[in-house]
Amino acid sequence: MKNLTGNEIRQMFLDFFKSKGHQIEPSAPLVPIDDDTLLWINSGVATLKKYFDGRVIPDNPKITNAQKSIRTNDVENVGFTARHHTFFEMLGNFSIGDYFKKEAIEFAYEFLTSPEWLDLDEDKIYVTIHPEDEEAYALWHDMIGLDDGRIIRIEGNFWDIGVGPSGPNTEIFYDRGEAYGQNDPANEMYPGGENERYLEIWNLVFSEFNHNEDNTYTPLPKQNIDTGMGLERITSVIQNTETNYETDLIYPIIEKVEFMTDIRYTQDEYKPHFKIISDHVRTVTFAIGDGALPSSEGRGYILRRLIRRAVRFGTKLNFDEPFMYKLVPIVIDVMREFYPEVEQKAQLIQDVLKSEEARFFETIEEGEKLLLQLIEEAKSNQHELKGRDVFKLYDTFGFPVELTREYAEEHQLTVDEEGFKQEMQAQQQRAREARNVSSSMQVQNDVFNEIEVDSEFVGYESTSIQSTVSVIVKDGSIVDALNEGDIGQVILKQTPFYAESGGQVADRGMISSNECEVNVTQVSKAPKGQHLHQVEVKSGTLKTEAEVNAQIDTKKRTSIMKNHTATHLLHQVLKDVLGDHVNQAGSLVDADKLRFDFSHFGKIDEETLSQIEEKVNEKIFEALNVDIQSMPIDEAKKLGAMALFGEKYGDIVRVVNIEPYSIELCGGTHVTNTSQVGLFKITSESGTGAGVRRIEAITGHVAYDYLNDYFDKFKSIKSTINVKADDDVISKAKSMAEEIKVQEKEIAQLKKEIAKSQSSNIAQEIEDINGVKVLVTTVEADNPKVLREIADDYKSQLKSYVIYLMSHHDDKVSMICNVSDDVTDRIQAGQVVKESAPLVDGRGGGRKDSAQGGGTNIDNISNTLQFVKDMIKSNV
Ligand code: ATP
Ligand code: MG
């Protein structure tokens, strides 16, 4: 076996496919860009979706990459199988409509077994295929020469994620030998079964069908190849380690933990702990490095749970304060060669991780408090901890069920295991549903792929031009003309219409000639880059080759330009005010407003927000020139142009320079001087989850209207509270608020006095029956509390008594009964209320000396009082 490091294997893979004409794509960030159907990039193909479903055509149809991936659905396996991680690297080669099964199989086999490359023992290789994929069988059997015993047919070998490309796959396994289990098909001990002996290292997917919306399968116009090999797995094969964890990609982290704890990895009972910590710290390091932050929702929540899970296992290795952040330098050390960006973020990663860990150590205490409280509650009733509570402890406080169970047993309580299981399943279901939508692609559409005509965008300079119609598409086919009322897509030789991209919405407008008037309702880019106008014919007929006038809505465009330039200013101001960790996470620029999403943890307070707004306005008032130039990318980088993280740029880029304040790569439309933005006003700041904040703002006349509206409201307040001078409004409002407070006090006082004078009247109603003072009457009270206060008042004045008071408020009747201790042998308060309340359609009860009740039938109050009087008379 060759002696290779993990880093060398990764490089060798890329070199191999480069030698086969593939273009090497860099590893994309783990946080998907422009794809909100996925929480994390979870495979090599996930970053290439736009090529796979044909939305974009790549420069080179053969692509290879080493893609960092996160899979949280495998989290329960991590630490317990040899081969699963939450973070791993997937080595892949891809063909977009170029080579297919034959070459894919040839390449894979050559890379694995050729002495020039990995040089694996051919006798150890097994493959699985889809039972109906005779083509794959023939290739493995006849071309490669594998005998039948090494080709296993498995029904599940069909890659299908719902609508979009799908097809059979073939998986390559490596037999790690009898040390990992004797052959036993009954116990999953065969390639493709759930076992530790036959290790799945590589999966080749033959994407050849469109899975259509109606669940039919039709052949794909362009067949694709998508493969994935786990770097950690192939490294464990080459380095002949028991699991992925002893490879040089991960073991240094384990050694560091050993060093920090004085506990040996060789102690079997602790192995999973070491594995989980070293796996999760890799995930967290890379995820934070790519802009995710721990939080209570979505992506941030996954991160938080991984950190908590690792910390929990850490506490079993006797860690009692933050420790994971100290492992970050080791992770970076191993990976920096291929992932230099993570090194640049080292400080941020450590800061975020340390504070999140510290928070969790506190939470463990908080969780303990909650647990003790739940235990107290459980003791006084059902003697069981509710499933929902146990789940909450687990989910929110990261409390493992086993721990909760131990606590419960100490207090002779049980845990509602069934309820807990249900909550867990419900959560897993939610996670699964989130995943299902996740990998959706679009159905390939052939027509646009085949349109080769050129189309030039001239909208940076012009808003209206004479042009020629070059292609018209209706209902998915190329046609010669569109008639009145028709909807279709149009490509022009030249167009001033901006196609939606980079967050900027498309232009709207008209295409017209003597023969027709056509509304442009949307503009997008076709796979080969032409601007595709979505149109609706208002009148006449639009024909191919017709000479037309293309005119955009300039008013809208002007507003869009203001918002786009303001967005660049905001981006730079955020970096200046909040820090360099601020990265654009999404943006929308339309005519009415701008929306900017960026990575940042925690809410931005009012004061900072005003500071941000003020700074943007300063840059507007400074009237800075906006200089736009195209140049080679290297030159732009030298100028310090801000490129969007993970975005792909061509060799020549467009640089928007708001001199000397902001410089960004951008294809959008901008004003020529910041003063044209006019005014900038933030309208909201909020969190969108997962450590991403969102600012919405307006500019120009929209901002002016917005502020004016406030001014109008102010004027209306002024006249309502009857003030002449603007400056007096606040002091008047304050004094009014104070006055109201004083008046409220007075009212309360008066109410009390009324109640008192009432009670002196009532005092006359007290009757003496056999030496017991009996008071049965109605009083005025807004609520049961006041009723109780009134009753208390009498209790304090009387010695031997039976007091029964009723009151009503709206349509609710309340009653209270108090009986002094020396009388309860003859009549009980609880009894009286229990028997009397039904007369007002109500219920009630209580102790011998004190009881309360309520009802709804106000009309029967006096009958009830009579009933109670009779009851007392006959008992006392
Ligand atoms: P398994 O059945 O072992 O979970 P899979 O079928 O989910 O693997 P694919 O989705 O086909 O795997 O991914 C392609 C390759 O990526 C696998 O052959 C494996 O080498 C690697 N891989 C997949 N999931 C993980 C993981 N959680 N940790 C490490 N490597 C993985
Ligand atoms: Mg899997």
Automatic annotation (TrEMBL):
Belongs to the class-II aminoacyl-tRNA synthetase family. HAMAP family: Ala_tRNA_synth_B. It comes from the Bacteria. GO terms for cellular component: cytosol. Its EC number is 6.1.1.7. Zn(2+) binds at H564, H568, C666, H670. CDD domains: AlaRS_core. It is found in: Cytoplasm. Binds 1 zinc ion per subunit. Residues 838-857 are annotated as: Disordered. This is Alanine--tRNA ligase. SMART domains: tRNA_SAD. Consists of three domains; the N-terminal catalytic domain, the editing domain and the C-terminal C-Ala domain. The editing domain removes incorrectly charged amino acids, while the C-Ala domain, along with tRNA(Ala), serves as a bridge to cooperatively bring together the editing and aminoacylation centers thus stimulating deacylation of misacylated tRNAs. SUPFAM superfamilies: Class II aaRS and biotin synthetases, Putative anticodon-binding domain of alanyl-tRNA synthetase (AlaRS), ThrRS/AlaRS common domain, Translation proteins. Residues 4-709 form the Alanyl-transfer RNA synthetases family profile domain. NCBIfam families: alaS. The keyword tRNA-binding applies. Signal peptide: none annotated. GO terms for molecular function: alanine-tRNA ligase activity; aminoacyl-tRNA deacylase activity; ATP binding; catalytic activity, acting on a protein; transferase activity; tRNA binding; zinc ion binding. Catalyzes the attachment of alanine to tRNA(Ala) in a two-step reaction: alanine is first activated by ATP to form Ala-AMP and then transferred to the acceptor end of tRNA(Ala). Also edits incorrectly charged Ser-tRNA(Ala) and Gly-tRNA(Ala) via its editing domain. Residues 733-760 form a coiled coil. Its cofactor is Zn(2+). It catalyses: tRNA(Ala) + L-alanine + ATP = L-alanyl-tRNA(Ala) + AMP + diphosphate. Pfam families: DHHA1, tRNA-synt_2c, tRNA_SAD.
